[in-house]
Amino acid sequence: MSPVTHFLAGWAGFEGWLHNRRDRAIVCLTGLAPDIDGIGIAADLFSRLNGGPETNYYQAWHRLYGHGITAALVFTLCAALLGRERARVAIAAFLNIHLHLLCDLLGSRGGDPDDLWGIHYLGPWNTGAEIVWRGQWELVSWQNMLISIALMGIVLARACRKGYSPLGLVSPRADRVFIGVLRKWRSAW
Ligand SMILES: [Zn+2]
């Protein structure tokens, strides 16, 4: 799924379990980390723009290096080292990474019904054990759109109730203004 959907899913799933802004930011960003293996797209573009050979590192690396248990453990370790409540951050980060994998399995195929994206959970060491779901829907699809809208609804409703939103990860001051506006809208309704 898209990074925005992954972020919203991570926030909706785990922010309530974390006690401070820093830990929430770390866990939400860790939920995006598996897609770092899509960096091959930059290498492909660089080669193309510089008249180099036609490469396809994106296809070769994506879902192989970042979407498996090894990467999950590395990302979890990094998250725990950076977090304040380390054990809590480690558990939430590990689960959030797996939520990312589940979301990708559900809805990230290409335009062709056979263009399924599998997860190499044991990658990059073992490329033979690919996890694929045959019912996978398209990356650009009404299902993903609906999930994103529902998640956004959850995040905004909770922001209204609790007094903070993901905006607070960037600027607590802007978040206070945002929450004030949200609450005004809610009471106007
Ligand atoms: Zn992914």
Write the layout of secondary structure elements.
Elements: H1 3-14, H2 21-30, H3 40-49, H4 57-61, H5 69-82, H6 86-106, E1 119-120, E2 130-131, H7 142-162, H8 172-188
Antiparallel strand pairs: 1-2
Helix pairs in contact: 1-2, 1-6, 1-7, 2-5, 2-6, 5-6
Bound molecules: zinc ion.
Residues 34-35, 67, 100, 104 line the site of zinc ion.
Describe what this molecule looks like in 3D.
It is built from 8 helices and 2 strands. 58% of the residues lie in helices and 2% in strands. The chain has one domain. By secondary structure, it is mainly alpha-helical. Helix 2 (21-30) packs antiparallel against helix 5 (69-82) and helix 5 (69-82) packs antiparallel against helix 6. The protein starts with a helix and ends with a helix. A two-stranded antiparallel ribbon has the order 1-2. The structure holds zinc ion. Residues 34-35, 67, 100, 104 line the site of zinc ion (ZN).
Structurally, how many domains make up the residues?
1
Shape descriptor: globular
- N-to-C SSE string, H for helix and E for strand: HHHHHHEEHH
Oligomeric composition of the shown chains: single chain
**Straight-line distance between termini:** 33 Å
Which structural traits does this protein have?
189 residues; mainly alpha; two-stranded antiparallel ribbon; 8 helices; 2 strands; 58% helix; binds zinc ion
Give a quick summary of the entry.
The protein is mainly α and 189 residues long.
